[in-house]
Amino acid sequence: MTKSNIKKYHKLIGYINLILSLLYLIFSRESELTERLFAVLAINVGYHMVYYFFAGIYKGTKRMRSHNDFNNSIGGIMIGMFAIFGFLASIFLTYIFVSEAITYNEYYRLFAICIPFGILLGAYSLWIDVRDEKTSF
C-alpha cells in the first residue's frame, strides 16, 4: 500500500466516521443534545487527530535525526517501535470498543469505532515512511 492509498482510505473512513457521528447525534437518546454534540465533535476530531499525530511524527523528527548517525539509527528504531505500538493499540482499542458494547448492551458506543482505524492508518503511514527511509540508503 502506498501513501496515496492511505490518504484515500483516511478520507473514506473520515466520511464514514462523519456519517456514524451524525447518526449518533440523531438517533441516540442516551444523553442530552449538548452532550451528543460534544461527543460528535470528540469522535471526529479524535479520528483526525490520532491519524495526523502518527503520520506527522516522521516529518517532525527528521531534522533532529539528521544531526548525526546515532540520532538517525536510534531515532529510526524508536519511530519504528512507535509505529508497531500504533498497530497494537488500534487492535486493542477495537477489541475494547466491541467487547464493551456487547457486554454492557450499549451498542451506541460502536459509533466511535472509526477512531482505532485512524490510529491504524496513521501508524501504517509512519511505518511506510520509516521503511522508505531504510531502503533509500
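(the above was protein one; protein two follows)
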Amino acid sequence: MTYKEELPSQCPPDDATDKSLPSVCRFFPFPENDPRNFHSHHKLGKPTGNAGECRAKSVSLFEAGAVPDVLAAKRTAFFKKWKIGLLDIPAGAGPSKEAGTGHIDWWLYADFDPFSSMVCVYESAEDLKQAVQDAS
C-alpha cells in the first residue's frame, strides 16, 4: 500500500492493524476544512520529542472519551483554541496502533480522504464531552 507520507522501513509497525476506528477525535489547529489538519507532526515540521520517525509520521487520534483527560494532562490553554473533529474511520483507511491513554497512531493510505469520515466538529472539549454523555 501507498501512504500519505513516505515512511521508513518497518513502518507502520507489525502490530499496527487496519481496522475501523469509531468515535475517534483529531485536534484541528487549522481552519476546519484545511488538509493540514491531517498532516503528521513530521510533515508540519513540528518538534516530535522522543518519538521515533515512524511515530512522528503518524497522525495522532484520540478516543472520544479520552479527550477531556488528554486536555487535563496537557497544555490546556494551548489546545483550547483548537476545534475537535469527531471521526468514524472505516477499515481500509490505514493501519493504526493504540499507544495508551486513549492515544492512537494512524498511518493514512494515500487514497483515503480523511474528511470523508468526519461526523462532526466541536468547538471545545466541553461540547465533545457533552455529546459523548448524551450518546451514552
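Reviewer note on protein two: Helices lie at 41-44, 53-56, 67-73, 76-80, 125-135.
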